[in-house]
Specification:
381 residues, alpha+beta, Beta-Lactamase, Alpha-Beta Plaits, 3 domains, six-stranded antiparallel beta sheet, five-stranded mixed beta sheet, 12 helices
């Protein structure tokens, strides 16, 4: 029996017993309100189940998680404005707007500051109109209110000690209907906030595992995985053509900063770190979006070049070599430093029929460049 049928039968029974007097009308109104509340709760539960599943799919991607949650909040509550404030990366203590506004920017605060600790302890959604004393105590909250934020949802990772686990907050503006946020809405938002907080935390962990913390380029672990993917893609492109048997060749460029240990010995490790960071930034700016720059280990970098012949890969390596040579690194207290690098280039399939041989050929070409005097490019034979 459906809820609608059951509700109608109950109403009919009340009318037969009590007639159409005022008491019967009050009872019928109460039953209808309870029925509507039950339907809404079932709808919210169903929505939360879908949200949990969708966020779980997107949980390793910060942008996808944020975009999905924003669309959901706008659709579910008819909100004009939804803004995320969150950690820019895993190790950051700052909470900043993920998409800064040019006009009326939202406040930046720290997790361990007064406002951050207050949010972590509050845990529940905060209606700004109902906390005037808190707005007086915390300028960040008053700034949100002045910018037409009406509800602040703390994003707190479950399982953390009380007062900890804050990864950010979501700011919601006015609703298009003009209605206030009712208690069931706040319950829904509390659950959503916990789900989003866990997803953002997982995304930060995933990002930390993929990105080298010092240089900001991909890590060695990501290099291993991504090179396998590009190798498999190249294998699928094999065709019956004697001159060009692969339509998607993969080239690998490996480079090593020349005399890197001297920078650490003469100037100290902070200068060595600056050399690595500056070189990594230059590499990232100089390759295509589909190319992958990774820190292979120590002072050595590797660049994966999909759909790139050896000739084009060698040309890119030579361009990078010249850019590194011309670049000067400014370090406080030291003169501008000049850096050079040696390069080795290898291409699949002509330089190796498997991943291991491709890496070995690129590495051997790199050592040929170093043995040949450094600051040069060598291609695998």
């Amino acid at each position: 029996m459906s809820y609608e049928t059951s509700n109608r039968e109950i109403e009919e029974l009340i009318r037969r017993r009590l007639g159409d007097d005022e008491e019967a009308a009050r009872i019928l109104t109460l039953i209808r309100n309870l029925y509507q509340e039950r339907k809404k709760r079932e709808f919210d539960f169903s929505t939360i189940s879908e949200v949990a599943e969708e966020i779980n799919v997107r949980c390793l991607d910060l942008a996808k998680t944020e975009n999905y949650a924003t669309s959901l909040l706008m659709g579910q509550f008819g909100v004009f404005q939804v803004s995320f404030l969150r950690q820019p990366h895993f190790a950051s203590d700052e909470i900043v707007a993920s998409r800064p506004r040019k006009q009326q920017p939202l406040p930046t605060f720290t997790r361990n500051g007064s406002f951050g600790r207050w949010l972590a302890i509050s845990t529940a959604p905060i209606l700004l109109e109902e906390v005037p004393d808190a707005r007086t105590e915390h300028p960040e909250l008053e700034q949100m209110f002045q910018q037409e934020v009406r509800l602040c949802l703390p994003l707190i990772r479950g399982g953390s000690p009380p007062g900890e686990g804050l990864v950010g907050c979501v700011c919601l503006g006015k609703r298009m209907t003009g209605q206030d946020y009712a208690p069931p809405d706040l319950e829904f938002l509390w659950i959503l906030g916990r789900l989003v907080a866990v997803a953002l935390h997982n995304a930060h962990l995933h990002h930390r595992a993929q990105i080298d913390s010092l240089t900001g380029v991909y890590s060695r672990g990501y290099f291993d995985v991504h090179l396998i993917e590009e190798f498999q893609r190249a294998m699928r492109s094999k065709r019956e053509d004697e001159e060009y048997p692969f339509s998607h060749p993969v080239s690998l460029v490996m480079l090593d900063i020349d005399h890197f240990k001297d920078f650490n010995t003469l100037y100290g490790h902070p200068v060595g770190d600056a050399v690595l960071q500056s070189t990594a930034l230059l590499l990232k700016k100089s390759v295509r979006l589909l190319d992958t720059v990774t820190r292979y280990g120590g002072e050595e970098f590797a660049i994966i070049l999909p759909d790139t012949t050896k000739e084009h890969a060698a040309a890119l390596a030579e361009r990078l070599r010249q850019q590194i040579e011309k670049h000067r690194i400014d370090v406080d207290g030291n003169p501008a430093l000049q850096v050079t690098a040696s390069f080795g280039v290898a291409t699949y399939p002509e330089d190796g029929t498997d991943l291991q041989s491709l890496v070995i050929q690129a590495d051997q070409a790199l050592y040929q460049a170093k043995d040949g005097g450094r600051n040069r490019v060598e291609s695998a034979n």
